[in-house]
Amino acid sequence: MKTYPAVRDPGSIELLFRNIRSKEEPDKITSDYLASIGFRRQTDVKLLELLFFIGFIDNNLSPTAQWKAIRNISDDKFKKILSPAIAKAYETVFLYQAEQQSTDSKLLMGFFKKETGVTETESAYMVLTLQVLTDLADFHKSVPQVKNAPAIPVPDSEEIPGLPKAELPDVSEEPAPGISGLSGELSLNITIPASAMDAEMLAMIKTILRKTM
Predict the structure, then answer these.
(1) What digits encode the pLDDT tens for the residues 22-61?
(2) How wide is the angle at C-alpha 201 spanned by C-alphas 110 and 198, nearest 5°?
(3) Of 100, 109, 128, 196, whose CB neighbour count within 10 A is largest?
């Protein structure tokens, strides 16, 4: 059964690419490498799955040409490399969205659940992971259309009925810090500013927090 990346801390994706772009290229991309650049939590192994899925590491866990291509380049050039990588890896997803003429998050969660057999929470993380990737790549502005595929619809901003809005904290500049000292509050190292997120995604994040606390 097909699977898709489901990164537990969406903010770590931007920080990971920031490290890839600025630091020396390693021979192998392993959990030890992630720990060396600040990603030491057990759940950070999901970042390896993400890099493999979008073609930045190969079957031998070595950096690919795409990894090499994004090092020490401008943000615009980075987006032009990341966008087609996303388009290729998630081609089936974007074709489904185009057929449905919708980018509704609940619809996409249902697609991920059906295709992968995962839980609702896991499918929500898959949606958030894709959202962070497309935002980093400025995807809907810069990606070339998949050949013979219908146009990818522009994301809508409909709210999930019955779920309250959530306020997100400021983005942390530290790579994937651990969570400690909980006292009734929980912060996410989210890379997307709250002002750039629609109410649907904010509600989804709050739902995940309720299930993980």
Answers:
(1) 999 999 999 999 999 999 999 999 999 999 999 999 999 9
(2) 130
(3) 128
